[in-house]
């Protein structure tokens, strides 16, 4: 009987340790997510309404919003793509955007811009 109590006590200690590790991980992820949301919010006034150009001064569209990606690892510029490039809203990761003079640019051809999936079908 004493061995069963010891086994159960050890199991409870291990489970309690896992639960506290999950709680710590959750709060860490919450803080990281909050920082990403703050980063997105701080970029909105800077980027909203700016035109995005691809290779050879191809106009991709205008930045409408800045959001956190689905996997919460990067910031995404939501760009309203021109109709003749497929229309709709596409998400371009912020690290791929470059500023050349006063323009926002992304590397890509007409075909790669057309191939980008819409955020909202």
Main traits of this protein?
121 residues; 2 helices; 6 strands; SH3 type barrels; 43% helix; globular; disordered N terminus; alpha+beta; single chain; 6-stranded mixed β-sheet
Tell me the helix content.
40-55%
Shape: globular
Here the CATH topology of the domain at 45-115 equals SH3 type barrels
Q: What is the class of the domain at 45-115 in the CATH system?
A: Mainly Beta
Fourth CATH level, the homologous superfamily of the domain at 45-115: PRC-barrel domain
Beta-strand percentage range: 25-35%
Any idea what the radius of gyration is? 23 Å
Low-confidence stretches: 1-23
Strand order of the largest sheet: 4-3-2-1-6-5
Overall SS class: alpha+beta
Q: How do the helices and strands follow one another from N- to C-terminus?
A: HEEEEEEH
Mean of all residue-level pLDDT scores: 76
Q: State the separation between the terminal residues, measured CA to CA.
A: 63 Å
Question: How many helices in DSSP terms?
Answer: 2
Largest sheet: 6 strands, mixed
List the helices and strands and how they pair.
Blueprint: H1 2-47, E1 51-53, E2 59-68, E3 75-81, E4 89-93, E5 98-100, E6 103-105, H2 110-115
Parallel strand pairs: 1-6
Antiparallel strand pairs: 1-2, 2-3, 3-4, 5-6
């Amino acid at each position: 009987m004493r061995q069963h109590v010891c086994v159960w006590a050890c199991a409870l200690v291990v489970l309690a340790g896992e639960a506290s590790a999950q709680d710590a991980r959750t709060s860490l992820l919450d803080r990281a997510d909050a920082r990403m949301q703050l980063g997105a919010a701080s970029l909105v006034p800077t980027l909203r309404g700016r035109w995005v150009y691809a290779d050879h001064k191809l106009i991709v569209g205008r930045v409408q919003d800045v959001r956190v990606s689905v996997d919460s690892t990067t910031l995404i510029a939501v760009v309203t793509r021109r109709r003749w490039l497929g229309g709709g809203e596409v998400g371009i990761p912020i690290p791929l955007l470059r500023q050349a003079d006063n323009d926002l640019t992304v590397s890509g051809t007409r075909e790669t811009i057309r191939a980008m999936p819409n955020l909202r079908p």
